[in-house]
Every structure is written in C-alpha cells, then in structure tokens.
Amino acid sequence: MTKRIFRSILCVSAAVLVASLIITMGVLYGYIRVQQRNELEDEVMYLTPGVEESGAEYLEKLGETDKRITLIDRDGTVLFDNQAAPDSMENHGDREEIREAFLTGEGQATRRSSSLSEPTVYYARLLNSGQVLRLSGSQYRVITVFANLLYPMCAVCLLMILLAAFFAMRSSEKIVEPINRLDVEDVKEGDVYEEIAPLVQKIGRQKETITNQVLEAQRQQREFEDMKEQMRREFTANVSHELKTPLTSISGFAEIIKNGFVKQEDIPGFAGKIFEESQRLIVLVNDIIKISQLDEGGIPYDKEEIDLYEMAEEVLDRLKEPAKKKNLNLQILGEHAKIRGVRLILDEVIYNLCDNAVKYNRDNGTVIVRVKRDRRGIQLVVADTGIGISKEHQDRVFERFYRVDKSHSKAIGGTGLGLSIVKHGAAFLGAALELDSRPGEGTVITLTWKTA
To answer: Any transmembrane segments, and where (predicted)?
Structure first.
C-alpha cells in the first residue's frame, strides 16, 4: 500500500511539475515576444524625430545596431535599409505591417524575412512626412533565451523530482502509519481515518464472529469427542455383555459334561445348546465386524449395477422357512429398478430389514416389500403387520445393541445390531432412511436413492 501511495504522489507531483514547466515556458515565451515588440516600438519612437527632420541621412549616420531599420516611401519604395541595398529590395507596399501603418498609423507583424531567411518581428510607424519607419528584430533571440534556460531548468526539474520523491515517501509512510499500527480489537475515535473507520469496525465484528464460530466449533468438537467416547464405552460394555452371555452358557454346559454330571443320553441335548450358543456368538462377532468395516469405510468391494427387485426377491426366498413357522405371507410388489452399489452390503441391508419384519411380526401376519419410483427417486419399502415401535423408541432403534423389549428380543433371538447395520449400510450406499411405525399396527421402513 505504501508503494502505491508513493507512486501516486510522485506521479501527481511529476505531472504538476511538467504542467507548470510548460505553462511557465508558454508565459515566458509570450512575455519575451511582447518585450521585443515594446523594444521595437520604443526605438521607433526614439528615431522618429530625427528621421522626420533629416530623413534617410539621419539613419545613415547611426552606428551599428542589432535591429534592422527600414524607411519606406508613400508608394512602398525602400528609401533606406541598414542591412541590404535599397535598390535591390522589392516594393514593400504590400507588407502587412506597412499597409496597417498607412491605414492606422502603426502596424506590426511576425513572419519569415525573404531577404534574411529567418523568423522576424516587425514594427512600423507612419511619419508626418507620409513615410513609414520600420524596425525589425530576429525572433531567434527568443529561442536563444529558451536554449540558455534549458540546462538550468532541467537541473531544477531533476531537483524538484528528487524532492518530490523524498516528500512522497515521507507522506506515504505518514498516511499508512495509522493503518499499520491499527488494532481492530481496540479501535477508538481518532485512532484511524474517519473514512475507513466503518470498514475497521466491520472487520472487528467479523473477526469477533469468526472467533465465536471457532470457539463454538471447538466446543462442538469436544462434545462430539465426548459423545464418541461415551458411545465407545457403551459399545464396549454392550459387546462385553453380549459376548459374555453365550460364552457363559457354552462354558457352563461344557463344564457339566466334563464333570460327568450329564447322562449319556442327555449329552446330545447339551451339545446342541453349546452349538446354538456358539452360532449366536459367531453371528454376533460377524455383525460387529460388519459395522466396524462400514464405520471405517473398509469395505473392499467394487460398486456395480444392482436390480433392487431381484435382490429383494432373493432375500425373501431365504426367509421362507422362518416365515412359514409363523404362517406369514411374504409379498414383493412394484417394478424392476437398478441402483449402483455394493452387492454384499445391499444384501445385508435388505436381509436385516426383512428378517426384522419376520421376527417381530404376528402369527398369520404379512410382510410386503415394494420397489418403486417417484419424484424423490428409487425406493425400497419394507412393511410388516408386527408389534410396531412406540414413538419414544423410534429415534434409538438404529443404535447398536438397542432393544425395545429386551426380554422379548432375547426370546426371538438376534444380536441387536441388525438395524444399526441397516443404518450404516444405507449411508454407505447413499440412501436416505425413513421409519414409520405404530404400536400394534406395524412398521414401514423406506430406503430412497435420489436420481438426477
């Protein structure tokens, strides 16, 4: 900013200096020309009495002069000229200054002399005898004056430019100094220029706003970290609990068999219990791994075009046996629609939705899967006629290990991670997730993929 102000001041100073020089030269040029004409007029006035008394004889007696003196008769004939022979000179009756003198008593002109071949200033006066006395001087005198003044004026100009540069630098530093030492946090009246005070105050307010936003972001970050830590602790506690239950059962049954407290014919039953609990443990571990992979984006699968209708149909085929036990009616409706995603994750999402719809349904109920398109995009809707979810639980059913009715859920089975897998899988696939449920009526879960 200092450099820009310095350049601006220096350029303005230089422009003013050049303009002043041009104006001064013009005024001086005009002044010298006027002075030259006045000198000619004064000398004519001085010579007039002698010429009127003695004529050309008086002029012949004059000594050398730098002025050219010419005496012209009434008919324009040159009677005397101190720089050329009168006989060789043409008639001067048509000269501008001579004609003007005959008409008004005096005349003047500036032109290039035909005999001397140089710019000349002329002044003529009509004498009482009817003759015209004319004096002329070379205009080169004016040019000579300017030539003599050229070097001193250049030196003065150079000095003035140097002084202008010095003062421009000092002025620019003085102008910028209040801005450089400005503190927008403590702006007082008179500390800054009146013109930029609103800008400084606005910057101060913006700085305060940004500071508050940063502090708020830091506070939210701390809250988020605290929440993550709390969720991690809850997750660890839930995992420990969920793992401990089947492990305790397995350990207990195995210990009974080991100590010989089981009859030979009861061993297959205890082995079956151990197998069931181990399977439950395997499913739980697999679900935990899936959620971890979805959280960390560590799914090593490529995306492809998948037909939602066909995949939903495959999932329902796999659930026919558990649905048959409750005499459920499984239906798939709608149209074929393709989305781009990871087949394994989409299969897990649809399977967990449909599996929950079967598990938490009433006997003789219905599960309907619908694939459709509307103004929002491509939708996969899973609806059941089951027990439903009350309003206070709907915001939490997608949390890990969260169960609405723990005793009922334990009887049904499952790890408590199914809907959490649905939530994370939907996010990975870029689908919006919606839940609509009424206790005693059923649940509808919708996945929506927006289309361009």
So the answer is: 9-32, 149-169
